Amino acid sequence: MATREEKMEAFGQLLDILDELRVKCPWDRKQTNESLRTNTIEETYELCEALMREDNTNIKKELGDLLLHIVFYSKIGEEKEAFDIKDVCDSLCQKLIYRHPHVFGDTSADTAQKVEQSWEQLKLKEKGGNKTVLEGVPASLPSVVKAHRIQDKARNVGFDWEQRDQVWDKVQEEFNELKTEIDRMDADKMEAEFGDLFFSLINAARLYKINPDNALERTNQKFIRRFNYLEEHTIQEGRSLKDMTLEEMDQLWNEAKAKGL
Protein backbone atom coordinates (compact mmCIF):
# COMPACT_ATOMS: atom_id res chain seq x y z
CA MET A 1 0.00 0.00 0.00
CA ALA A 2 1.00 3.64 -0.44
CA THR A 3 3.22 5.55 1.97
CA ARG A 4 1.96 8.61 3.83
CA GLU A 5 3.90 10.83 1.44
CA GLU A 6 2.33 9.14 -1.59
CA LYS A 7 -1.14 9.57 -0.10
CA MET A 8 -0.54 13.27 0.52
CA GLU A 9 0.81 13.67 -3.02
CA ALA A 10 -2.29 11.99 -4.49
CA PHE A 11 -4.60 14.25 -2.47
CA GLY A 12 -2.62 17.30 -3.54
CA GLN A 13 -2.96 16.26 -7.19
CA LEU A 14 -6.74 16.02 -6.73
CA LEU A 15 -6.83 19.56 -5.35
CA ASP A 16 -4.71 20.81 -8.26
CA ILE A 17 -6.92 19.09 -10.84
CA LEU A 18 -10.11 20.56 -9.38
CA ASP A 19 -8.56 24.03 -9.24
CA GLU A 20 -7.82 23.75 -12.96
CA LEU A 21 -11.25 22.32 -13.81
CA ARG A 22 -12.95 25.12 -11.91
CA VAL A 23 -11.20 27.62 -14.20
CA LYS A 24 -11.09 25.85 -17.57
CA CYS A 25 -14.14 23.54 -17.72
CA PRO A 26 -17.52 25.23 -18.42
CA TRP A 27 -19.47 22.51 -16.59
CA ASP A 28 -17.28 22.46 -13.49
CA ARG A 29 -17.13 26.24 -13.45
CA LYS A 30 -20.90 26.70 -13.26
CA GLN A 31 -21.54 24.21 -10.44
CA THR A 32 -22.97 25.45 -7.13
CA ASN A 33 -23.77 23.83 -3.79
CA GLU A 34 -27.36 23.42 -4.90
CA SER A 35 -26.57 21.96 -8.32
CA LEU A 36 -24.22 19.39 -6.79
CA ARG A 37 -26.51 18.35 -3.92
CA THR A 38 -28.64 15.87 -5.87
CA ASN A 39 -25.55 14.29 -7.41
CA THR A 40 -24.02 13.93 -3.95
CA ILE A 41 -27.08 12.02 -2.74
CA GLU A 42 -26.92 9.78 -5.82
CA GLU A 43 -23.20 9.09 -5.32
CA THR A 44 -23.85 8.20 -1.67
CA TYR A 45 -26.45 5.63 -2.65
CA GLU A 46 -24.12 4.19 -5.28
CA LEU A 47 -21.46 3.77 -2.60
CA CYS A 48 -24.00 2.10 -0.31
CA GLU A 49 -24.88 -0.36 -3.09
CA ALA A 50 -21.22 -1.22 -3.63
CA LEU A 51 -20.76 -1.69 0.13
CA MET A 52 -23.77 -4.01 0.29
CA ARG A 53 -22.24 -6.13 -2.49
CA GLU A 54 -18.76 -5.97 -0.92
CA ASP A 55 -17.56 -4.93 -4.38
CA ASN A 56 -14.13 -3.47 -3.61
CA THR A 57 -13.58 -2.23 -7.16
CA ASN A 58 -16.73 -0.12 -7.08
CA ILE A 59 -16.25 0.84 -3.42
CA LYS A 60 -12.96 2.44 -4.47
CA LYS A 61 -14.62 4.16 -7.42
CA GLU A 62 -17.58 5.48 -5.45
CA LEU A 63 -15.39 6.67 -2.57
CA GLY A 64 -13.46 8.66 -5.16
CA ASP A 65 -16.67 10.21 -6.47
CA LEU A 66 -17.71 11.23 -2.95
CA LEU A 67 -14.24 12.60 -2.22
CA LEU A 68 -14.53 14.73 -5.34
CA HIS A 69 -17.76 16.21 -3.99
CA ILE A 70 -16.14 16.99 -0.62
CA VAL A 71 -13.27 18.76 -2.36
CA PHE A 72 -15.73 20.51 -4.72
CA TYR A 73 -17.85 21.92 -1.89
CA SER A 74 -14.68 23.03 -0.13
CA LYS A 75 -13.52 24.80 -3.29
CA ILE A 76 -16.84 26.62 -3.56
CA GLY A 77 -16.50 27.61 0.09
CA GLU A 78 -13.00 28.92 -0.60
CA GLU A 79 -14.26 31.01 -3.52
CA LYS A 80 -16.85 32.54 -1.19
CA GLU A 81 -14.06 33.18 1.34
CA ALA A 82 -16.06 31.15 3.87
CA PHE A 83 -13.77 28.12 4.38
CA ASP A 84 -11.38 25.87 2.46
CA ILE A 85 -10.36 22.21 2.56
CA LYS A 86 -7.86 22.89 5.37
CA ASP A 87 -10.66 24.33 7.51
CA VAL A 88 -12.76 21.23 6.79
CA CYS A 89 -9.93 18.91 7.84
CA ASP A 90 -9.05 21.02 10.90
CA SER A 91 -12.67 21.05 12.05
CA LEU A 92 -12.92 17.28 11.67
CA CYS A 93 -9.66 16.68 13.53
CA GLN A 94 -10.74 18.92 16.40
CA LYS A 95 -14.06 17.10 16.67
CA LEU A 96 -12.45 13.65 16.61
CA ILE A 97 -9.97 14.60 19.32
CA TYR A 98 -12.64 16.25 21.49
CA ARG A 99 -15.05 13.33 21.21
CA HIS A 100 -12.40 10.68 21.93
CA PRO A 101 -11.11 11.71 25.38
CA HIS A 102 -10.50 8.01 26.13
CA VAL A 103 -7.82 8.09 23.38
CA PHE A 104 -6.51 11.67 23.46
CA GLY A 105 -7.39 12.58 27.06
CA ASP A 106 -7.44 11.08 30.52
CA THR A 107 -10.85 9.37 30.61
CA SER A 108 -11.55 5.68 29.97
CA ALA A 109 -14.09 3.78 27.87
CA ASP A 110 -13.45 0.08 27.52
CA THR A 111 -16.48 -0.89 25.40
CA ALA A 112 -17.99 0.41 22.16
CA GLN A 113 -21.24 1.21 24.00
CA LYS A 114 -19.43 3.39 26.54
CA VAL A 115 -17.72 5.21 23.67
CA GLU A 116 -21.10 5.90 22.04
CA GLN A 117 -22.57 7.14 25.32
CA SER A 118 -19.59 9.43 25.88
CA TRP A 119 -19.87 10.69 22.29
CA GLU A 120 -23.53 11.67 22.78
CA GLN A 121 -22.85 13.34 26.13
CA LEU A 122 -20.04 15.40 24.62
CA LYS A 123 -22.27 16.42 21.72
CA LEU A 124 -24.86 17.67 24.21
CA LYS A 125 -22.20 19.84 25.87
CA GLU A 126 -21.42 21.55 22.57
CA LYS A 127 -23.05 24.87 21.68
CA GLY A 128 -23.14 25.87 25.33
CA GLY A 129 -25.22 22.87 26.36
CA ASN A 130 -28.23 24.07 24.36
CA LYS A 131 -28.28 21.08 22.06
CA THR A 132 -31.06 18.53 22.61
CA VAL A 133 -30.55 14.77 22.38
CA LEU A 134 -32.37 14.37 19.06
CA GLU A 135 -31.33 17.67 17.49
CA GLY A 136 -28.47 16.03 15.62
CA VAL A 137 -30.72 13.66 13.66
CA PRO A 138 -30.95 15.12 10.12
CA ALA A 139 -34.55 15.77 9.07
CA SER A 140 -33.75 14.61 5.52
CA LEU A 141 -32.65 11.09 6.51
CA PRO A 142 -34.66 8.22 5.00
CA SER A 143 -37.37 7.21 7.49
CA VAL A 144 -35.96 3.77 8.37
CA VAL A 145 -32.47 5.15 8.98
CA LYS A 146 -33.90 8.09 10.92
CA ALA A 147 -35.97 5.82 13.21
CA HIS A 148 -32.91 3.69 13.96
CA ARG A 149 -30.82 6.79 14.69
CA ILE A 150 -33.49 8.30 16.96
CA GLN A 151 -33.70 5.09 18.98
CA ASP A 152 -29.92 4.80 19.19
CA LYS A 153 -29.57 8.35 20.50
CA ALA A 154 -32.30 7.76 23.10
CA ARG A 155 -30.51 4.59 24.21
CA ASN A 156 -27.26 6.47 24.72
CA VAL A 157 -28.87 8.59 27.45
CA GLY A 158 -30.50 5.59 29.15
CA PHE A 159 -33.96 5.59 27.52
CA ASP A 160 -34.17 1.93 26.52
CA TRP A 161 -35.60 -1.45 27.49
CA GLU A 162 -34.00 -3.14 30.50
CA GLN A 163 -34.11 -6.50 28.67
CA ARG A 164 -34.20 -6.67 24.90
CA ASP A 165 -36.90 -9.36 24.77
CA GLN A 166 -39.31 -6.85 26.36
CA VAL A 167 -39.57 -5.18 22.97
CA TRP A 168 -41.72 -8.03 21.65
CA ASP A 169 -44.55 -7.10 24.01
CA LYS A 170 -44.46 -3.63 22.46
CA VAL A 171 -44.45 -5.09 18.94
CA GLN A 172 -47.48 -7.23 19.79
CA GLU A 173 -49.24 -4.24 21.37
CA GLU A 174 -48.69 -2.12 18.26
CA PHE A 175 -49.81 -4.98 16.00
CA ASN A 176 -53.06 -5.34 17.95
CA GLU A 177 -53.69 -1.59 17.75
CA LEU A 178 -53.10 -1.65 13.99
CA LYS A 179 -55.49 -4.57 13.56
CA THR A 180 -58.15 -2.70 15.54
CA GLU A 181 -57.92 0.31 13.21
CA ILE A 182 -57.91 -1.96 10.14
CA ASP A 183 -61.18 -3.47 11.37
CA ARG A 184 -62.56 0.05 11.76
CA MET A 185 -61.24 1.06 8.31
CA ASP A 186 -60.00 4.43 9.57
CA ALA A 187 -57.35 5.29 6.99
CA ASP A 188 -55.59 8.00 9.01
CA LYS A 189 -55.37 5.92 12.19
CA MET A 190 -54.35 2.84 10.18
CA GLU A 191 -51.37 4.77 8.82
CA ALA A 192 -50.47 6.07 12.29
CA GLU A 193 -50.63 2.61 13.86
CA PHE A 194 -48.69 1.06 10.99
CA GLY A 195 -45.99 3.65 11.66
CA ASP A 196 -45.98 2.72 15.36
CA LEU A 197 -45.65 -0.98 14.49
CA PHE A 198 -42.88 -0.26 11.99
CA PHE A 199 -41.05 1.88 14.57
CA SER A 200 -41.26 -0.89 17.18
CA LEU A 201 -39.91 -3.46 14.69
CA ILE A 202 -36.98 -1.17 13.91
CA ASN A 203 -36.42 -0.91 17.66
CA ALA A 204 -36.37 -4.71 17.87
CA ALA A 205 -33.84 -4.81 15.04
CA ARG A 206 -31.62 -2.36 16.91
CA LEU A 207 -31.80 -4.39 20.12
CA TYR A 208 -30.81 -7.57 18.27
CA LYS A 209 -28.06 -5.74 16.35
CA ILE A 210 -29.78 -6.10 12.99
CA ASN A 211 -29.45 -3.19 10.58
CA PRO A 212 -33.08 -2.72 9.45
CA ASP A 213 -32.16 -0.89 6.26
CA ASN A 214 -29.73 -3.63 5.24
CA ALA A 215 -32.26 -6.31 6.19
CA LEU A 216 -34.96 -4.72 4.04
CA GLU A 217 -32.58 -4.26 1.11
CA ARG A 218 -31.60 -7.95 1.30
CA THR A 219 -35.29 -8.82 1.03
CA ASN A 220 -35.70 -6.37 -1.86
CA GLN A 221 -32.86 -8.07 -3.74
CA LYS A 222 -34.22 -11.52 -2.95
CA PHE A 223 -37.65 -10.56 -4.29
CA ILE A 224 -36.06 -9.13 -7.45
CA ARG A 225 -34.05 -12.33 -8.08
CA ARG A 226 -37.09 -14.56 -7.65
CA PHE A 227 -39.38 -12.35 -9.69
CA ASN A 228 -36.79 -12.15 -12.48
CA TYR A 229 -36.61 -15.96 -12.45
CA LEU A 230 -40.38 -16.11 -12.78
CA GLU A 231 -40.42 -13.60 -15.63
CA GLU A 232 -37.51 -15.20 -17.52
CA HIS A 233 -39.15 -18.63 -17.47
CA THR A 234 -42.44 -17.13 -18.59
CA ILE A 235 -40.73 -15.48 -21.57
CA GLN A 236 -38.97 -18.76 -22.45
CA GLU A 237 -42.39 -20.37 -22.70
CA GLY A 238 -43.51 -17.63 -25.07
CA ARG A 239 -46.04 -16.29 -22.59
CA SER A 240 -46.74 -13.09 -20.71
CA LEU A 241 -47.00 -12.77 -16.95
CA LYS A 242 -50.50 -11.42 -17.46
CA ASP A 243 -51.47 -14.73 -19.07
CA MET A 244 -50.32 -16.83 -16.13
CA THR A 245 -52.45 -17.91 -13.21
CA LEU A 246 -51.41 -17.13 -9.67
CA GLU A 247 -50.87 -20.86 -9.10
CA GLU A 248 -48.43 -21.03 -12.04
CA MET A 249 -46.53 -18.01 -10.78
CA ASP A 250 -46.39 -19.48 -7.27
CA GLN A 251 -44.91 -22.69 -8.67
CA LEU A 252 -42.11 -20.81 -10.44
CA TRP A 253 -41.58 -18.67 -7.34
CA ASN A 254 -41.13 -21.79 -5.23
CA GLU A 255 -38.69 -23.18 -7.82
CA ALA A 256 -36.61 -20.01 -7.50
CA LYS A 257 -36.74 -20.32 -3.72
CA ALA A 258 -35.63 -23.96 -3.87
CA LYS A 259 -32.66 -22.90 -6.03
CA GLY A 260 -31.58 -20.51 -3.30
CA LEU A 261 -32.42 -17.37 -5.27
UniProtKB/TrEMBL annotation:
InterPro entries: MazG-like_dom (IPR004518), NTP-PPase_MazG-like_C (IPR048011), NTP-PPase_MazG-like_N (IPR048015), NTP_PyrPHydrolase_MazG (IPR011551)
Catalytic reaction(s) noted: ATP + H2O = AMP + diphosphate + H(+)
Molecular function as annotated in GO: ATP diphosphatase activity
EC number: 3.6.1.8
PANTHER family: NUCLEOSIDE TRIPHOSPHATE PYROPHOSPHOHYDROLASE (PTHR30522)
Entry-linked NCBIfam families: mazG, PRK09562.1
Protein name in UniProt: Nucleoside triphosphate pyrophosphohydrolase
